[in-house]
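Hello Y.,

Per our agreement to keep a running log of every chain we model this quarter, I'm adding this entry. I've kept the format consistent with earlier entries: sequence first, then predicted structure.
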Amino acid sequence: MSTSLVAVVLGAGQGTRMKSRVPKVLHRVCDRPMLAWVVSAVTGLHRETPVAEIVVVVGHHADEVTACVKSMDSPVPLRVVLQPEQLGTGDAVRCALGKVASTSSAVLVLPGDMPLIQVETLRRMAEAHEREHAQSTLLTARFADPAGYGRVVRDAQGAVLRIVEHADASPVERKLNEVVVSAYMFDQKCLRSEIADLASDNAQGELYLPDVIEQMASRLACVETGEEEVQGVNDRVHLATVEHAMRRRLNEYWMRQGVTMRDPAATYVGGAVELSADVELLPGCHLEGTTRIGEGSLLGPDTRVIDSVIGPDCSLSYCVVREAELAAGVQVGPYASLRGGSTLASDTHIGSFVETKCARVGAGSKIPHLSYVGDAVIGEDVNLGANTITCNWDGIAKHETVVEDGARTGTGTRMVAPVTIGRHAYTGAGAIVTRDVPPGSLAKGMPARHEEGWVERNRPGVLQGSLSKNLVEDLVEDLADQ
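Predicted structure for the entry above:
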C-alpha cells in the first residue's frame, strides 16, 4: 500500500467455552500465545506495507493480556486499549479508534484467536483494498461446517449485500457456506462514520462490526482464503486442531531448511525455536521457548529442551534440558536432567541418571552416571565416578564445590561444600570430603564402623525369633537416630 495502516487486534473476549482461567488469546499454540502469532503476522506485513501501530483491545483479564503484549518484541509500536464492557466487536473497534489519531490510513482489524493467519493473506487484502479503492475489504472462506460463523450474503450477480451473524440468520442463510472470518480492512474515515451509528438490535444485544459492511457495499472488496488458515479457537477441540496445523506448518518449514525429522507427527518445535542445517530430530522431541540447536546435532528420542542453547554436533537422548548452554560435541543421556545455569564446555559427557544445576563443566570432562552436581565448577578432563554427589546446601545457604582440572572421584564420593578438589587429585570410593584436597593428593574414608553384638544388646532375643511389625518400625527409627 502507498499509505500506512493501523492494525487493531481484538483480544478482549472472555472465551467461556474454553472453560479456563487463562484468557482465550493467551492459550498457547506451538509454545506461543495465540495473540503473539497474530501480532507476528502483522509485523511481517510491515516489511512491505507500512504499519503505523498495532492496537490490541483488552477486556477480560486485561492485566494478563497487557503483560503479554508488553513482553512482545515488535518493530511496530504496540498500544493496549481497554474495552470496559464487552459489548461486541463493533464496540471494541470503536474503543480502539478513540485512541488512534484520525488520518487517511486504512484500518486492519483481526481477531486475536486466529493464530494461523499468514502474512501473504494480509498482503493480498492490502493490495485488493488499494487496487479497488475499497471502503471495506473482507476476508472470507468456505467452511464445510459454517455453524457459528457470520454468513456472506450475495446478490444474483455475486456482489456482497450484507453479513449476517449465525444467531440472526434465516434457515436459508444458514445453508450458505461462505463465512466472514472477522478479518477486515477499512477506509478509516468511512469506518469512523459508520461505526458511530451501530445499533445493538440483534439476538445477542451487541454491536456487530460486520453491520457496517452493508453501508459500504458499493465499494467493497473480497479476498478468499482456505478454511484452515482462518480457523478460530473457541474451545479446546479447536485449540488442538490449530496446534496440529501450526506444528505441521513449522515442521515443514524447518525440514525445507535442512532439518531431518524421522517422524514429523511426533516432533514438537515451538514457534521461537531456531534450528540449524543438518540437525536431526528423532520422535518425541519437544523444543520450547528460545531454544537454539546447532548444526549437525542429534536430539531424541524423547528429549525436551527449554530455553537452552545446544551447540553443533551434540547428541542428546531421553533427557530434559532447561535453561542450559552446551558447547560443541557434548553428549547427554540417556535419562539425564540439566537444570538452570548448567554450562557444558566442548566434548563433555553427561551420562545416565545424572542431574546438574548451576554447574560449569570444563572441556572433555565426564559425569557418566547416577550423580548430582549442583552449584559447582568442574575443570577440564575431570572424571566424576558413579554416584558422586555435591552436598551444596547446609540448610541456610548454597555453597560452591570446585573440582580442578584432571581430578578423579571414586564411586560414591560426597563433596560437602564449600570444598575444592585440587588438580589431578583423587578420592577413594565412598569418600566424604569435608576439607580441601591438595593437588595430586588422595582423599579416602570414612569407612563404616562395626559394632559387634549391637542387635543382641539393643533387641534381646531378636536373633532367636521373628520381629513383630511394631518392633521392625522401632528398629528402623533407632537406626535412623544413630
